[in-house]
Each structure stands twice: as structure tokens, then as C-alpha cells.
Amino acid sequence: MHLRTLNRALVVTAGIAILGCGRGTQPANEATPAAGTSAPAAAPAAEPVTEYARPAKPSKQYRIGISIPHLANPHYVGQAYGYIDEAQQLGAQVTLLEAGGYEHLDKQISQVEDLIASKVDAIILAAISGPGTVAVVEQAAAAGIPVINVNVMTDSDKVVTRIRSDDDVIGRMQADFMGERLKNGGNVVMLRGAPGTSWAEIRGNAFRKQLADKYPSVKVLGEQYSQSTPADGLRLMEDFLQTYPQISGVYNGADSTAVGAAQAVKSAGKAGSIVMTATDFQIDTEKFIRDGVISASVLQQPVTMGRWGVRAAVSYLEKKSVPPVMFTGLMTATKDNLDKLDLTTVRAPAGWTPPVR
Amino acid sequence: MPAIIVALAIVFGSINPNFWSVTNLANVSRQVSILALLSLGQTFAILSGGIDLSVGSLLALVSVVCAQVMREFGLVEGIAAGVTAGGVAGLVSGLIIARARVPAFIATLGMLVAARGAALTLSGGLPIAGLPREFLVLGAGYIGPFPIPTVVAVVAFLLAHVILSRTRFGRYVYAMGSNEEAAVLSGINVAKYKMLVYVASGLFAGVAGVILTARVISGQPTLGEVQELYSIAAVVIGGGRISGGVGGIGTTLMGVLVLGILGNGLNLVQVSSYIQNIVIGAIIVGAVYVDLARERRQ
Q1: How far is CA B290 from the centre of its chain?
Q2: What residues of chain B, 221 to 250, have a C-beta less than 8 Å from chain A?
Q3: Which of B4, B125, B267 sits opposite A195 (nearest CB)?
Q4: What CATH number matches the domain at B2-290, 3.40.50.2300, 1.10.150.20, 1.10.10.350, 1.10.3470.10?
């Protein structure tokens, strides 16, 4: 009976597995040098690359394993679309795994170990924890499998390349927007996002520093880390509003907390009188900007991140040099420019759902 | 149950031959070692007629304590502090259950919530990095062809087996789980041995937490979510009775292997992680149903 259940599950997924199974096990006889040695020989302190074109389609069908924190956020759905669409363009086969949330580090580690065991040609990793994924990345490197960090970084120099937004700039852009709006002084609280992730750290620190340097009359009253979900944002913001009735600004490291926080601000009858900034652009964020609850959001380009991740993996496997750091672009959405933004690099096409979760 | 394990292995192996590779077998055994250690503690708790819902949260508390002490005082001190933290938390649960007579379900539910809170408080919610590199060996190293976490889990299984089958404590665990009143009437100091059960469970969680911390070379306050439920599942899938008295190390080992092979195998044959949960849920219930049906027939 168990077996029958299991077989049915297998058949179901076989139907939706991407690009079929093909010859699953071409040996990865790339004579791959231990990852990390791939950086271009020249230019020791190379400037981060901000454009990265698609390489020529390789003759070989590479197998790329991808592990991302979760798919509960449209940001990662957009990224998943980028991975899968780009893999199709480059004839690569993708295994996309999601760990079910930033609290499941152990699960992500098991997933990456399973990718290593199934001898994929390359691994793309959006890390749940910077320090927490070091060991498994080094394990992959030791097995000759290159690891590409996308979006959230591992604290290891064994990765081939780091593709992300310039999180420092995201923090500063929010600080500048906040500072200009609160010229005559203000009191800000921060919803930083998932503890231990590179983005929550860098963005939040940059926001604080920029405020302190350029807008000293804007004070940070408090900050909280949480899982990146609307429920957490709602809860924390309700509590902040109780603790500090004088709040005039809210920073959000991610828009998943922002849509919850916006709900709290709206319920408290303070929509529009509190300046709210966020990162990213899920549908609810767009709606809250249109309604004037969220004032501005800095848009990352998750689709581009996904595309560049696959490009970097294929380029590396084709023995082309891969720049060690790449920054995907940013834009700011406000009520004024909402309908003029080009969202093809931000969101998956409407109605698209990831085939393998 | 062994037949199911073999069948699973054959199915996964035929779909993805890498399932049988040495790397992957080492992989599976390393991945299940944490669950194995937690399930051992859970076996003591359930056999004795209780339950320990706190083991998942204890992983987080142990991880944070271990990392903080290690960063301050050194490798050995950190490991010792981690295991001790597990034992102390178990002792607290045990005292509440045995002396204050709070039902185990409630006492350990309280510990589940409180231990997570303590882990978040001690760490400020942030991961604790900067641990010595040598510590990584405990999570990623090998003794011969065997991953160290696997070796630790195997030693723990042997130890638990000896305790349950060869010692007075072991016999009393079964006695309390079969019929607590009878155990009291036959002069067993039930309070004392109940307390020891939860200390044991806490110590196993302590060892598991230290190894998991080594695997992620950092203290992580969010580790171990829902692991307590998997440890309970491991105990009952193999044939342990949820109300106590029936089961043992052998049945728990079966349960751990089924869950471990399923998790790894479904990843290797690329079944979506959402569907994996459905499969695992069905197998938990199905296995216990088959077991009960067989029992009724006899």
C-alpha cells in the first residue's frame, strides 16, 4: 500500500519535472578545478559587474541544482522563473528545491547534500544563513561541484561568484527617501527581516548609517528581526505602534514584512501619516503604494538574478571566466511612477507557477 | 517494516542510481543522525508512557549555548556546555512531570515554547558565527568511511539498547509504560525514574544539538522546528506504541531509517518538497495502521 501511494506520487511529479530526465548521469568529467579559483586572474579587486549577457548555448545539457529558502514570496517565484526560463534558453536541466522558509536551515543543508550526491554539474544557492551554509558549500567545492551564490550569500570564499542586489544601496536608497520626507526630524522603527541573512544585515546597517550621516534629526527608535512573512510584520508593527506612538517612519528590509506592517498602520488609522519604505514589489506592495500606505519600495530584479545565476553556472562549466561579484539593478517605485515601471525583470509572467517546488 | 525499507531503497535506486553511491549512503546516514538521536530520547519518553515535545526546541537552545560557550572558552567547553544544557532542560521537564505531577504532554509543551524563547533571547535572534574550524570535523568529518555524526548515532543506539535491555532503569521504563499503577504498587520509585527518562531525552537532544551546530558551524536559534513531531513519528512508524510499554531501540531504528531514506530518496528522484510532505504524512499513518491491523488479527 505504501508503495502504491509512493509510485503515484512519483508518476505525478515525473509529469511536471522540468525538461524530462534525459540521460541523468553524464559523469561530470569537466576536470573542474576546485571552485573559487575561477576568478579572472587579473584585477584583484575587480569592480562588481552590472551587466551580464547570455553566453552561447553549450553543446552539452548541463544539470544544475538550485536551492532557495522558500517560494512563499513572489520575489523567489520571480527568481525561480528566471532560473527556469534561462535554463531552457541554455539547454540546461534544472532541479529546483525550496526549503520551506528561513527557519529550515537544516533542511536546506540536506537538500544541498542531496544535490552533491546526485552529482549535478553545478549548484546555485540562495543561502538561508551566511555562516550556516559554509560547511556544505565547502563540501560541494571539495566534490568538484561549483557553487554560485545568488541573492543571499554564504560566508565562504569557495563560491564561484556572488550575484545579488547591492544591498548597501538598497539601505541607502530607503534612508534617503525617509530622510527627505522627514526633513524636520522623525522617529523610525525598522523591520529588518530574517536574522542571519546577508540582505537583512547589509540593508539594515546601511539604512542606519546613512540616516546617522545625512539625516541626524531622524532617530531610530527600535528594530526587530523576524521571519520574512506578512504575519510577522503585522504582529511586530502592532506592537511597535503600542510601544512608540510617536512613530513617523517604518523601514522594511523586505516587502513581506511591509505588507503586514502596512496593514497594522492602516488599522491604526495612520495610513499616509507614517512614511513606509520597503524592498521588492509583490502585488500587495503595489496595492499599498497605490493606496498611499507604503510610500516607496526599492525594486530588486529577482528574474535577472535567476537568469544570471544560470548564465554564471553554464559559463563556468564551459570554462569561461566568471566575474566574482555581480550586482543586478535597482529601481524605486512610488505612487507617481507605478504604471511606468518595466516589470519583466522583477516578476514572473502573470499566471506562471514554478513546475518543481 | 524491514521489507518496506528494502523496497524503498530499490525503488529509489532504480530511478536514480546515485542513491546507492557511497557518497549518498554516507549522506543519508549523516542526515538521519540528528533525527536518530532525538528519536532515541523520544523512545525513552514514549516507552515510559510519556512524551517529550521539547526535543526540537532543545536543538536550538543547545546550539546557542554550545556556540556561545565555545566562542568564549573553547571547543571542549562548548561541547560540554551544549550537552549539559540539554540534560538540564530535561531535568527541569522531568521534575515538573515527576514531582509536580504535570502531565508530560503539557510540561514538555511548555518546555518547547520556553526553550525556543531562551534560544532567541540568549542569541538576540541572530546566528552565532566565528566558531573554531576544528569543530566542523564533528559535523562533516569521517572515521574511516563513516561520517562522524553517524558513528555518534550508532554508539548512542548501542548505549540506549544496553540501557533498555540490561539495566534496572530500562526494565522500569517498560514497566511504567505498561501499567503505571502496577509499577507503583510493585515498589518502583516511579517519580525518580520518570525524571531520569526526561534527563536521558534531554541529553540525547544535547548530543544531537551539538552535532547539528557543528554541521552548520554556527549557533542557530531557529534550528529544529517540528523535529519533535518527526521524532515521535520515527518511534511509532517502527511499531512503538504511542501509549507506552511496547517498542524499543530496534523499532525506533526502523522508523528513523524509513523517514531518512524517504526524505533523501524523494529529493534524489526529484519529487517536489510539498508532495514529499504528503507522502511522509501518509506513510506515518499507514505504517501505524498496518501495525494495528496485524495486532488485531493475532
Answers
A1: 24
A2: 221-225
A3: B125
A4: 1.10.3470.10
Do A261 and A235 touch, CB atoms closer than 8 A?
A: no
What confidence tens digit (pLDDT) does each residue in A188-207 have? 999 999 887 889 999 999 99
Nearest CA in chain B to A102: B222
Residue A2 has pLDDT above 70, yes or no: no
pLDDT tens digits for range A267-325 = 999 999 999 999 999 999 999 999 999 999 999 999 999 999 999 999 999 999 999 99
Domain ranges of chain A: 46-165+302-329, 167-299
Tell me the per-residue pLDDT of B133-145, one tens digit each, with 9 for 90 and over.
899 899 888 998 8
CA nearest to A107, candidates B16, B226, B21: B226
Judged by CB atoms closer than 8 Å, whether chains meet at B270 and A95 is answered as yes
Least confident of A26-30, B24-28, B105-109, B187-191: A26-30
* ipTM of this complex: 0.72
What residues does each domain of chain B span? 2-290
Report how far residue A114's alpha carbon sits from residue B263's, in angstroms, rounded to the nearest whole number: 10
Helix, strand or coil, per DSSP, at residue A137: helix
The domain A46-165+302-329 having CATH identifier 3.40.50.2300: the answer here is yes
- CB contacts of B140 in chain A (<8 Å) are 135, 139
Q: Which pLDDT belongs to residue A103?
A: 85
Q: Do B217 and A196 touch (CB under 8 A)?
A: no
Q: Which helix (H) or strand (E) holds A252?
A: strand A249-252
By C-alpha distance, which of A239, A235, A225 is closest to B123? A225
